[in-house]
Queue: 3 jobs
Job 1
Amino acid sequence: MGHSYSWDQRWREAIEQFKVAADEFPEEPAPYAGLGMAYVELDELKEALESYKLAARLSRGEVIYLRQVADVQERLGQSEAAGQTYMAMGELQLKRGAHDDAAHNWNRAIHLAPNLLGAHQRLAHYYTQQGQARAAIREHLAIARLLQARGDQERALRVLREALNLDPRNPEVLTAIEMIQHGEAIFSPGDLPDTRLDEDLQETLDAAGGVRVEEPVGGDGGPARSAQRVALEQLAEALFEEESDITDGGVSRAEYNALLSKALDFQTRGLLNEAINYYERAMEGRAASAAAMFNLGLLYQDRLRFDDAIRKLEVAVQDEDYRLGSHYALGELYRARGQMGQAVEHFVTTLKLVDLDTVPADQAERLHGLYSSLADSLASGGEAEKATAFANALVDFLGRRDWEDRVKAARARLNALSGDRLMILGDILTAGSAQVLESLYLSEQHAQRDMLDTAIEEVYRAISLSPEYLPAHIQLGELLVRQDRLDAAVAKLAVVGHTFQIRGDLSSAVNIYERVMQISPLDLPVRMRLVELYREQGQIDAALEHYLGLGEAYYQLAQVDKARATYQDALKLASQGSAEQGWRARLLRRLADIDMQRFDWSRALVAYRELRQEEPDDERTVLTLIDLYYRVRQPALALRELDQYLKQLVASGRGNKVAGILEDMARRHPAEAPLVYRLVRLYLAQNRRQDAFERLDALGEAQLEAGETEKAIATIEQIIRLNPPNVLSYRQLLKQLHGQ
């Protein structure tokens, strides 16, 4: 109704309806946007501004609403505020990958508010990336003027030296450097406007991902500069240490202290060339401390003496106190020289060292593996843009004074959205946008409230922003599991695992495939990939475990031949597995069970022979082996195996089991005379004549039924020797048999 009235230009009535809508849906931006439009048409600009600010905040920083805010601010003559809003719009578009649109808004921002430091910094970086050296230098000069006006001479010089990398002979830059070094102003400070961000706008940007538009990037922040402050403290303390005045061909202790004192003084005053000169003289002929090497390395870096800086820092990196700062500085140096491969190597190590302090000790090994995979993926061919983006993102993330607080906040956010998975700080830098992680975080929050459809929508938003960011795809797979859409979940996670595998991140691939196995144990292709991956990594026990799972899956699917072939393949690998796992015996038993169920006695016999060697004390194995010998008509071998096992029982003090085993075997094979005779002898030895008679009687009867007259005669003769009560009937039977 509000839009309908607006269409008819009935603005007051439209306002009333938009207010009703806002009361009903106070967290929706659309009613406030409608109010803003109506108030603008009525030229009630202050009310319009407040409405558009609310719409922007509730939409979590939609650029369309921010543009309306900026437009109204300009109409009200609030140029500085409008500049801030355009700056914020640029930040949001940068995070969403719209770099050209972002640059357009930053230019609009500095047109309205020339002293917006953040906008000049963003434009300097943008023009440098675009290869527009002249425009980039113009922005560097503007940054230097603003920093000098704020009294930050050292950072102003550093910015101008960065500009020299673009054009070493640029007269404007060289003149500006000379003026600062001589204490002359390159910018008349006057009354600098207050460029602090409007509180309402900052709340809007916080909702859109925590954008801070006025915080300088780089400068005196980051691990290297933090470590440099520690180094300077140590060097100052060294002035008061007592040490024997031994020169060893170098400067004396007194001379060293004097030179060091001057070096520290010059460095404090920003006179870096003079400071370097005195540090070098102080270190001549003396064993330099790690603090001195590290500090001098950073000074060389500030003066663009990259080779000298690298040599010093490669020494300092061996010291525990300066390892983190050295890796970070080395990354910056190699990045400045265009050696992105070496830069990324040091940057990944930097991030790993930082991240190790944020996770429990029991997760350290997994974290090492994840960073190793990250390094491999960034170092692989064809990933130059990805490596550059990572390096730029890391410098932006760590290159601030509050980098330690940012790390803690980032770890808290990762833990909140990762669930049972371990995510690393590298995930933040490879996500492509803060909005990606924000969407994943919101998705996790929705999932915890069982709002699964909404959670999936947020994940899709993250994927649309960064299609190659695999943690988003993993989260989608887990949400599909929670919806019982198991086929879709398995398909999604299998593709993620395969992608990790292609990227060379085998550890992550294995973890994803294992998750698939939990969801769908009968997924044969994924099970086979796991077998291959574990074999490639030398994890034989894990490979064999999945061989067993693969064989069991084939068996459940009634593909018995494939199950048997799988166990046979695994058997070739079993000797490389852990002895305590008993892989050979477990696989042989699976093979034997299949052959027994298929009545393939010959194959089963081969398996049980090997099992007998693997498990000499296993009663089930030996009794089955004896039974198989009888089935394949090798009674002599059966008796030999039986006798050997019975002796083994007696020797091990388990002779009481002999009778039971013989009785069981005789019951299973009642016509096997040698077997029955052994049992009869045992009965007689135990004075169990009646049991012996009954066993011989059953044997004779079985022989007669089988037409084995001669064997029956021998059995009846043994019965007669026992002199049973009805011996006369046995004699008569014997006479009849002889007559036959």
Job 2
Amino acid sequence: MIERIESPRDLKSLSAGEMKALADELRQVIIERVSINGGHLSSNLGVVELTIALHHVFNSPHDKIIWDVGHQSYPHKLLTGRYREFGTLRKHGGLSGFPKIGESPHDIFGTGHSSTSISAALGIAAARDLKKAGGRQDETGKVIAVIGDGALTSGLAMEGLNHAGHLAKDLIVILNDNEMSISPNVGAMSNYLNRVLTGTFYKKFKKETKAILEGIPKIGGRVTRIAEKAEGSLKGFFLPGGLFEDLGFNYIGPIDGHDIERLIETLAGLQEASEPTLIHIVTQKGRGYKFSEEDPCIYHGTGPFDSDLGLVVTNCAAQSVAPSYSDVFGEALVGLAAADDRIVAITAAMKEGTGLNAFSRRFTERFFDVGIAEPHAVTFAAGLATQGLRPVVAVYSTFLQRAYDEIVHDVCLQNLPVLFAVDRGGVVGEDGPTHQGLFDLSFLRTVPNLVIMAPKDGNELKSMLAFGLRLNAPVAIRYPRGRSVLSSECPAECLTLGKAEVLREGDELTIVAVGQSVSPALTAAVMLHEHGISAGVVNARFVKPLDRELILELAERTGKILTVEENVLAGGFGSAVLECIARAGLTGVSVKTLGIDDLFVEHGAQKVLRRKYGLDAEGIFHAAVALTEARPVHG
């Protein structure tokens, strides 16, 4: 049946039975493709019926559906003409794993970070009304935001709800709650009240009754207020929607998010609505696939796996041995916390992803998951630090962007000893531009008082973690996604603040690399030796403070410096080296910075992207050869 769905229009004529069969097909296609390509599974399986109902009732893209985060957009892609391309999901040059404006007119707003849907949808609704007021009579479409209950922990979502209730625009917010179920009694009452509350008869009756009551001389206003309170009390007794009602939304729910007929009836009842409405649906994350139903967290985002056995595929023996950087961090933090009861760990709804599972189990009272609220996580950590604790904020690079003001104002300005464990720094891969951690070195390097480190391997990460917790200052340790390279042990004592490590001597060229780039830089140096070029390699270790003394010495000795970083070039590590040489007034030095130009890096495998942007060993080799053949460009 899915092969016959070329656009949402093809859903209009389907019977209820056909739509249920289509839901089964969608789940099978999603499971099959994610098991091959990797991706987000549980959240997509949970919204299949909702997606069918939305596209059956509304007319996308005239009616605009905005998916929060985008973790649940696969059924939407399949129903909007992208079934034949679905095999390319998350592959370089293929379909994005998230909504993307340039990919389809049905993708109204590009997403990847949580909690943006309500604010974006309100902006779209306000624009619709402004254009309609200006004479554009075609601007009549509905605007629907689909947001998960977890995303409501973000302040941005609450800001959007607050403003939407104030503006009172015609806006539908669907709250997809997959953390609770509906008991039979509450469900039956809920279904009954929803039929009444969404029906045109009820709305007309409510409006006319209010007018009659207000017309009663002297006491009309008071009677109206009593009636409104009675209605609110009745609904509040049965329904958990008082907060949304107080914010100015008409609350509907909770209803079963897997009952297509009920969803269609509810959504169709809102066609004539003109006020902000919040529909609370309850879904099962991972529905329809027993492994994801049993453990929806593991199958939220996954690599390729055996769809029959539900096991993650590990083709490479080395992969099963080498731990991920996240695991190395988590294990090291547990060891340090066992010896120092001042250490506490904080995450923003990413306990598993950042490697804090073991810490949360062993140090329950010293572990804090603040929900999807990165700004709060940082300021909360700052508060802990003022009282003598050593907070560690474990966060993905791309999500740390959301807390920049708090880093500057609440931590660094006050010079508080908060340690940021910045996971997924650099090229992340298939999740694409919303998740590439390519800006952190630039936006962190500008902040006074902050020490920034980047380990070349897992053991150096352990050392940096111990070293950073000893410093009475703000610290950021930035490390990549993926398996760690394990070298010889390096205790924290081997680190000196602001001092780099010379890994290989060279007479004609010095490659100064940061973090993940150190290993391919060493490989490139061997290739250069075979090419007749003597290249030294430096592990920068510290992005800030920079090892100015070593860099200037090597610049004078070899006359050629190549910096390598998985970060945008603007304001990054290479910029720091250029600034260092310029301030020293050093002349006759050729400097080339290798990194990401002024662009957003698309989705694709890490290996593919590093090759494309010249950040693998071969790319570094070619950049070094070009530099040795170039005339001095600095001074």
Job 3
Amino acid sequence: MKRIINLSVFLLLYISSQAQFSLSYQLEANPDFAKYCKGYDLKTTDELEVIDDRVVEFAYDKEGNLFEYFYIHGVRYVNSDDAIDRNNKIYVSFARAFELVSYDARVISAAGTIQTLGKDALKEGTREDETKVQYFAISGAEKGSFIEYYYLVKRSPSYTGTWFSMQGNAPVAKAVIKIISPENLVFISKSFGGFTELYTDSSLSERNMLVGIQENISAIPEEPFSNAGGNKMKVMYQLYYNKAKGKKNPYNYGIVSQNVFDNMGGKLEKEEQKALDKIIKNCNIKFAPDEESKIRQVENYIKKNFAFVDNSDDAYENIASILKSGALNETGATRIFYHIFESLGIEQEIVVTTNRYSIRFDKEFESYSFLTDFLLYFPKLKTYMAPYAQLYRLGLIPGSYIENYGLFIRKISIGDLNTGAGKVQYIPAYPGKHTQHNMFITASLDNTTDSLNIDYKQEYTGYYAQNFQPIFDFIEKDKLKEFEETIVKSLNEDITIKSIKIENKGGENLMVKPLIVNSKLSSKHFIEKAGDKILLKFGDLIGPQSEMYQEKQRVLPIENDYNREYHRIITFMIPAGYQIKNLEQLNLSVQPFKAKNDAAGFVATYKLEGDKLTVTCDEYYNQINFPLAEAELYRTVINAAANYNKIVLVLEKK
């Protein structure tokens, strides 16, 4: 449960525990930051994280209770108005904190003048989501300034698995992380994304210390078709051995699996069982012919009739309370679905994984840090369900969980005792054919030859259908027309919609039937005149396309959200008395991976039968990850579609 921090309490107690922290946290009287910046031309550098120094120290209080100190010391160099604006608020992490021990902030000008901001620099504010935040309000910085700050908080300990990101939007001259603990507590760590592995430092008396130091960390770029968050340098640590109790690896996945199963699938109390039976009755599954139909019926009922809330209160996890309030959280959703399917005799496994856009699940390092999100896996159907993802259905889980690992927990019975046994397994991505956007277009010029009449049919499946199909269950009637027009206007905003007919609306059709959108349109956008010639923006008929035209050398490997396919058939009726001079542009084949695994490609061909021009265009992406060495090949496929989008056919009189 999140702790609400009262800033006034911090200000009253900020000096009460100074002597217990093992390291010094006083700012230098005459700092020399130039020694850290030797590898950088500060005159041309916009922003630099000069020092990023973090310390986590575990200690016991007088009563023998474990707590944790968290210390961070940062120095930032700013050399532009934008950099100054980005750093005028430096946010402070008070998560789990119950005492602010000490803090300070100051600005050192390019001339070396030191401006101490004082205790009043620490402010409290409110984010857009109304959560309270604390930050240093930085004033007086100018181009060439260094902003220095530190704070030390005392907080409840986190030792079952924690990670820090050591890389951000600005380069880092020197990053340091230290994990300090009493002699009896031995921590282990693992680094990701290229950060150095932590080593044991024995310089502290009666303390264990892990240390990691890395210099000249580059900024993580935001590049198209990449996973910046998942690729950032990170450090993960957790308690491995308590010498006083003789226990090693107390948070292994064997114990975790038992705990998760007890929490999610353990025997229900009488009140919860009665509520569950009522929910099952309301699901009306008596006519469902098979397991898959039963799962879908249950899922549709729960996801359409209950509110999904981001709240850790127990009331949203207890099935009886959920039935009364009509609201549930992630734990509540997982418990309800698991117990319903258990009651129906449907084989299932609880899967606990993490968001690959934050941190990828590492199959070699057992840590609670990877256990953040729940799925259900059905072995007989070989497919997944995301209990808490209200706009997803069986056979489609959020893309942040695919191409990742997870802890799969199955029920095992020992006599009358049921418990969970876990195994780390891979969660594969869906193939490209699973997610399609298919287009069937018939177009012709109107009598004035100034506008194009278009019969436009679209078919959406998988993730593309998920963007729209379940929304129909929740959208207000007065917003429905606008929503439907938005789907059609994905072709182009500059169109006149004459009619729309949509089939297979609603979440119950997701992964069962494609969303089909039939529309009749007219538009002048696609036509231009050049003397007696008609210019047809034929490429625009495939819709807007992504581009990968970049001047800088790419840094990150390619990583897609999901695999996908596009199939387009465009028929254009050439007006009488006209011919097209540049038809050869319509043939295009870019398949750079054809000889290997055909992971991505773009192929377009045309056929001319009298005045009927038919173009078939197929584009496909059947691989999530491409190494950096193949990024250029991938780029040719993306840009093939973008270039095709620019084709203009020239119609001239015969």
